[in-house]
Amino acid sequence: MSNFAPKTKEEEMMAYENQVQNDIQYIAFWKRVQMHLLDFLIIGIPAVLLYRFSLSTSIKINSVFPLIIYWLLFCAYYVFMTVKFGGTPGKLLSKARIVDKNGRFLHIGTASIRYLLTFLYAIIMVLKLKEGIDLKVSSNDINHFISTHEGYFSSIGNFIGIITFVECLIAAFNNKKRTLHDLAAGSYVISHDTFKRMKENAEIRIDLTREDTFISTQND
């Protein structure tokens, strides 16, 4: 006769929950670098062309409005893709998803927090353009002016650049590969397979904030 009593339904559910929790894969640092490179190829090149066009148009009409429109569309695109699809094309092609602690796509508010540094950078660029317009910089020279002109806004822009670099390094040195913007927004970047399992097991209380489970990262 067995000394072990059969597991109750609650115990079986808890064991299954732990199994699903232990199968979670977080996207490793270098794969995140790869995703950013893909985004640059897909989004970055057209975005740079539109950015330069908005700059020259702003100079021609002596207004920052075209650049404001550009940055609004740029930021809205990132928020929309994150909320609707769980990531930009680079992440989607790399089979990764941005989710909250329960494996759901972010809401508009949390997605906006995730891209807060981008919003701040956009504001700095608009203010630097305004400075260039006030100084009568030509459309041929405005891009160089914004890139090289020293001043209050340049210092803030440089500071944002340092923060961006530091937050990327942070992702390389924590178990769940989270950057500062992930920590601020409560977001995680996980594999698509993990996302599917969490979605299929929605009745299970999966919590990515738990630290008592095996940490797996996806490098390929």
From TrEMBL:
- Domain RDD: where? 29-186
Signal peptide range in chain numbering: none
Q: Which UniProt keyword terms apply here? A: Cell membrane, Membrane, Transmembrane, Transmembrane helix
What domain of life does the UniProt record list for this protein's source?
Bacteria
Q: How does it sit in the membrane?
A: Multi-pass membrane protein
- One GO term of the cellular component aspect? plasma membrane
The record's annotation in InterPro entries points to:
Pra-immunoreactive, RDD
- Tell me if Transmembrane is a UniProt keyword of this record: yes
Membrane-spanning ranges: 37-55, 67-85, 105-127, 152-173
Q: Predominant location of this chain?
A: membrane
Q: Where in the cell is it found?
A: Cell membrane
- What name goes with this protein? RDD domain-containing protein
Species in which this protein is naturally found: Paenibacillus ferrarius
